[in-house]
């Protein structure tokens, strides 16, 4: 998970439903019944067939890509090297190191369904203490992202080591490993196949951990739900339009679906930014004509 950023559920929820009760001795009373439905982003990610289909589509493409790469050993990995830029990327060379695929955990391979239920019902938004408690105790209420369990098994079967690189806390490493296993995603060993925030001095930035992994492996695929799961260069202060454009430059655009694989997440994260001027360019705005105009 990249540094958490959410829209407070209260801003996304429909108005509170209420039921009226009339008694023989007095007027009707109104009893709040809580949110009528989860926020739209949660409905989509945790409930919709469309999100499940998108996830499976990504995992199918990822496994096919890995199978092709394993047959023809690449010269370079898909991890950007130190000193690279988005305009002039360069990659960590593979040498003769064994293959690995590196994944974020939350909403990339594992759905935090139990935590999001709590978040939606309380309407509190993200609370760090609640998330810490979830990391420690939530293993019974997680599940695999659709396609992730079979996808990871397929990678392992072709000799690709699966490594998790998440911004969950290193202090909760054992609990995170249990949650990954409980979700049906296999074993994770801290410092070997599980890397966490606190494993280096870079906080929520993941490049240092990617370079650490690349010392031992040729990384042939990266998977995540936030751009920081691919390179920290996306999070160096660009405004919203510039950040979007950075994903589409010629050197970077060719990586999507061919080494870098994105999973949908409309619930939280670095993608939930931007005002009207950021999201809707001036030359792409429309309003219905005034009455009488053509």
From TrEMBL:
Source domain of life: Bacteria
GO cellular component: cell outer membrane
Leader sequence residues: 1-20
UniProt keyword rRNA-binding present: no
Short name of any one Pfam family annotated for the protein: Acid_phosphat_B
Keywords for this protein: Lipoprotein, Signal
Transit peptide among keywords: no
The protein's name: Lipoprotein e(P4) family 5'-nucleotidase
Taxonomic lineage from the root: Bacteria, Pseudomonadati, Pseudomonadota, Alphaproteobacteria, Sphingomonadales
